[in-house]
Request: fold
Amino acid sequence: MMWLSDYLTTALCMVAVAIVIDLVVGDPRSLPHPVVMIGHAISTLEKRWNQGSQQRRRLSGFMLTTTTVLGTFAVAWWGLALLTWLHPWLGLMAELWLLATALAIKGLAEAGRAIAVPLAQGDFPAARRALSMVVGRDTEQLDEAEITRGAVETIAENSVDGITAPLFFALLGGAPLALAYKAINTLDSMVGHRNSRFNDFGYASAKLDDIANWLPARLTALCLWGAGIALNCIHQARFRWQGALTKTCQQAPRHPSPNAGWPEAMVANLLGVQLGGTNVYQGTVSHRATLGSPREPLKVVHIDRAIRLMHGAWLLFFLLMACVFMGIVTITSRGVI
Reply:
C-alpha cells in the first residue's frame, strides 16, 4: 500500500502549493476561469433541456447534473493526462493552477473588504453596490447593520463552497474531483432554485449539492469554533466560543439550507450577533429564521472579524486533513494496512 502513502503525501503538497498560489494571485479576470466555462455549458444546456412536463423536466435536470459533473471530471482528467504525457512539468503546473482556481480564499476576503472599506468611510452607496455583487437580495435601502449582516452571512456560507469543500475534494481526488465539486456548486447556484422554472429541473442539482457539502459544512463549523478559540489565545480577540458549539447544533437546522446554517450559525455565535431575518428579493419579502443572538449590534467591524475567522477556519481545516492523511501514511508505512 505504499502507493497510497505516496498519493496522500503528494496530494497534501500539491494542495498546499495551490493555496499559496490562490493567496498570492487570486482569480485574475484576464485569465479564463473553469467555473465560467462550466457556467456557460450549464446555461446552454438549460435553455435546450428545461422544457416539457414535470417528469421530463426532472429527468432532463438529472441528465444535466450527470453530464456536467462527469464531463467536468473527464475533461480535467484527460486534459491533465495529455499535458503530463507532453511533459511532466507541464501537467504539474496545469494541475496546480486548476487547483488554485477551485479555491476562493483571496477572492472571498477581498469581497468582504470591498464592502467594509466604503462602509467604514460612510459611503453607503458604494458599500451597497459591493454587497450587491455577492448577494441576490435587494441592497438599495440597507443600513449599516443590514449591509454588515449580508457581508458576514456571505463570508460564513462561502467559507464552505469557496474554500473548505474544494480543499476537501482536492485532497481526495486532485484537480479533477475539485473541479467536479465546483461543477456541482455551480449547478446549484444556477438551477437549484425553488421556483416555477427550476423546482423540477434543478431538483437533482440541489440534492447533489446538499450531499457534497454535508460533511465539509459541519467540519467547517467545527474549525470556525477552533479558530475562535485559537484567535482568542493568540490575539486576545473577543470571540464568544463558550457555548457556541452547542448553540450552533441547536440553531443550524433552522436554516432553509441543510448545510449553510452550520457556518452561519457558528459565526453568529462567535461574533455575538444575530444573522438571518428578513431579506427582500426583487421586491419580494422573504423571512428566514434568526441565528445567534444580538449581544452586539451589527457594525462594520464584524466584517473584518468574520474574515479573520474564515482564515483561521480554512487553516485548521487543512491541518486537520493533513493530520488524518499523515496518520494514514504512518500506518501504511509500518505495514499495518
Notes: Strands lie at 274-281, 284-292. The two ends are 7 Å apart (CA to CA). The chain has one domain: 2-333.
